[in-house]
Amino acid sequence: MSLHKKMPQPMLPDETRREIQARESYHVLKIISEFVGAGEELRAIQPAVSIYGSARIPETHEDYAFTERLARKLSDAGFSVISGGGPGIMEAANKGAFAGRSPAVGLNIVLPHEQKANPYQDLSVKFQHFFPRKVMFVKHAVAYVVMPGGFGTLDELFESLTLVQTGKTPSRPIILVGREFWSGLIEWVGDVLLKRGLIAAADLELIQIIDNEDEIIEHIFAHYENRLEDLAEVGNDTWLLGL
């Protein structure tokens, strides 16, 4: 059967098609403007580490305290800290970095619920669309630290993992914090995805579970220093650092 026969008949009237094209063109232009504006603002904050995690973690939770301590140490070590700019783990990441030597960056998304900008941001960038926001998380960081979280955190984790796995983003640490929280997922990946041949054995090595903040920083530093050596070898290809 031809494509023409599979398409609805009659086709859309010309006026309706022009209206759709105009609306979609405007939508694309808004996304492009978010890319351009955010990219200009974020180029000044390298090197940076992105921290993902739940918006629902309360300030009294140990994950909040851990994230705040880690972010402060990263900031004092010279890494800007990028979070989603909202409450929970995002707030803890920004709060720790805000008290440190390097910038606390929030990539804020406009949502009907949950997302409310936290007050601990040296640089706050607002997005209407998830797509450019997720690109900025990945592009402008030399490592990703993933705290416990829900669907949004899992989305950000697997987005980062897929880009590294496929070589669309240069290799960089993807660190999960919370062995008890993440072990079941990692076991499922090995027992199901790997055994069915849906991933390679080497793909499992793209993720590390580290529950000690000093070990996390050491791991990130080791990787970053290696990337600096790579950069010196290839010249001005700053994409190796995600810049």
- End-to-end Cα distance, whole Å, is 48 Å
The ordered H/E elements are: HHEHEHEEHEHEHEH
Beta-strand portion reads 5-15%
Number of helices: 8
Average pLDDT:
87
- DSSP strand count: 7
Summarize the main sheet: 7 strands, parallel
Shape: globular
Overall radius of gyration:
20 Å
- In terms of quaternary structure, what is this? single chain
Q: Low-confidence segments, ≥5 residues, pLDDT <50?
A: 232-243
Give a brief rundown of this model:
The chain has helices at 3-6, 14-42, 62-76, 89-98, 130-139, 151-165, 179-194, 213-234; strands spanning 48-52, 80-83, 104-109, 123-127, 143-146, 174-176, 207-209. By secondary structure, the protein is an alpha/beta fold.
3D structure, described in words:
There is one protein chain. The protein has helices spanning 3-6, 14-42, 62-76, 89-98, 130-139, 151-165, 179-194, 213-234, and strands spanning 48-52, 80-83, 104-109, 123-127, 143-146, 174-176, 207-209. The protein has 243 residues and is an alpha/beta fold. Strands 4-3-2-1-5-6-7 form a 7-stranded parallel β-sheet, sandwiched between helices. β2, α4 and β3 form a beta-alpha-beta unit. The longest helix has 29 residues, at 14-42. The protein is globular and about 65 Å long. Mean pLDDT is 87; it is low at 232-243.
